[in-house]
Amino acid sequence: MTENFSNNLRSLCADRGSISQICREIGINRQQFNRYLNGTSMPSAHNLRRIARHFDLNEELLFAASAEFGPAQKGMFPDLGDRSAEAFLAPYRGQQKNLRRYLGFYHSYFCTPSWEGRIFCSLVRFSEKDGLITSRSYENATSGDKSVRQISRYEGLVTMRGNRIFVTEHERAREGSVAQTILYTAHRQQLKYLRGMTMGLAWRPYPHPYAARAIWKRLSERVSAREAISACGIYPAQSLQIDPTVRNYLNSPSGFLSSKDST
User: Fold this and answer.
1) pLDDT digits (tens, 9 = 90+) for 80-126
2) The CATH number of the domain where 48 resides is what?
3) Start-to-end C-alpha separation, the chain
4) Are 180 and 167 in contact (CB under 8 A)?
5) What is the DSSP letter of 148?
6) d(C-alpha 60, C-alpha 169), whole Å
7) What span, in angstroms and rounded, lies between the C-alpha atoms of 163 and 94?
């Protein structure tokens, strides 16, 4: 039974990535968890319940023979019931250590079908609240003839998997859209730019989903809120008002930067 448990636990962890991250999400000491994986120790009833809950499995299934565990695990769709909200939030909890160095303000740049041929700039803030890393975004764009104006506000949650940052936001307006952005840093010690992809729903001329290259530039603490907001809007693709690193990244067919642009 002990061997079945350790084999099944290793199988579950192999599909989830970092053992350290799993331990943080469950709330179990890494050394103790290693003993479960090695089969040298068995969890208490309390810890067993926490492990089963984390992987959304019945406790009994964790002790099943390997021949039974694989098919049962793949075919199992547990009824989360009242735990559905908590199950959604689980990947976003315990991220303070991973993401605290990213807290602050950013200008987010991307291209959208709503403003074809232009670069869209919005303001984003990462904050820490109630054990979660949150995001708040502000968009403000006006057409050249002043006939069209777009103002949107989003809020959401942030998590990190490996070296990727995942931002899931929803528009605060009723029946607003949901957007997903995935970012990474070119170098671990370089926090000025976050590059990646954003996915959302076009605002005009008609709504349809899109995915576009995105790059975020961290703002200096010396930049005032008024300055940060006033820079939001739409710019020509080759505008000299746009940071050259941002401009080159968004306009490059491959999305790769030369070494001189990665500083």
Assistant:
1) 455 667 777 888 988 988 899 999 999 999 998 888 889 999 999 99
2) 1.10.260.40
3) 54
4) yes
5) -
6) 37
7) 16
